[in-house]
Design goal:
Length: 252
């Protein structure tokens, strides 16, 4: 038990730096704070069930982000979702000509599309589903945004726009709110120590298979015994033995 507790603590220390981003991903996609909490808890638990397969930090973080998107999108009902306002609070030290400043000049829909695409890494169909617009409209809004950027940015700042947008969007996700890590760890510890543990689930599944096999063998034995009882006894030459009644002479 102590070994498992130590492993859970090491795992949580590994996942802790990503918790804010995972929570914000759930918040931006679902538009709901309670569901964002659920996305975070479920993602952390799913990561625990597969974390032994990922040696590198990059592969592990990529897997957690994929799980967060999957869990969050499973809770999206459609275009009626309440959008979270993003890129709305300017920083005092922000350069008036910076990329962030230009993003803040865009409409709320375009700002949300930018964050969902470059921060949450959603594909066009998912953007359409979350924002309630067609795939063509979502792609058109982003294409026009890029054309405006190229007109407004100085020549020397037009390179590597995708990488710069991803970095800004990650920062924006981190700024949307910090989850209660203490409560998160307590919930994770309780769920991971229960029946949802990988080894616990495997052992339960194996036990169910053994029980099913034993039950089948038992039923087969019962059926064989019943068949042996009700089947009429046969003579060696294949004839059926009959019971002689009292007072009857054997047939010639």
């Amino acid at each position: 038990m102590n070994q498992q507790t130590d492993e859970m603590r090491l795992y949580f220390a590994r996942v802790r730096p990503l918790c804010g981003e995972i929570y914000a991903t759930g918040l931006v996609i679902t538009g709901d704070y309670q569901r964002a909490d659920y996305v975070l808890r479920e993602t952390v638990l799913r990561g625990w069930q597969s974390h032994r397969h990922f040696r590198s930090s990059r592969g592990f973080s990529t897997r957690l982000r994929e799980e967060a998107r999957r869990v969050a999108l499973s809770g999206v009902k459609g275009p009626g979702e309440t959008p979270i306002e993003v890129f709305s609070t300017p920083s005092v030290e922000e350069n008036p000509d910076s990329l962030m400043k230009l993003i803040r000049l865009e409409t709320p829909l375009v700002r949300r599309l930018i964050l969902l695409k470059f921060g949450c890494e959603l594909h066009p169909k998912a953007l359409s589903r979350v924002c309630g617009v067609s795939v063509r409209q979502a792609e058109g809004q982003l294409n026009r945004f890029f054309r405006r950027l190229k007109r407004r940015l100085p020549q020397g700042e037009r390179n590597h726009l995708d990488a710069r947008l991803k970095a800004l969007c990650r920062e924006e996700l981190q700024s949307l709110g910090a989850p209660d890590l203490g409560a998160l760890y307590r919930a994770f510890e309780a769920e991971a120590a229960g029946s949802d543990r990988p080894m616990g689930r495997m052992a339960l599944r194996a036990a169910s298979w053994v029980a099913a096999a034993l039950l089948l063998l038992l039923l087969a034995g019962i059926l064989w015994g019943v068949a042996a009882i009700v089947q009429p006894a046969r003579t060696q030459d294949g004839g059926v033995l009959t019971t002689q009644q009292d007072g009857e002479s054997p047939a010639p």
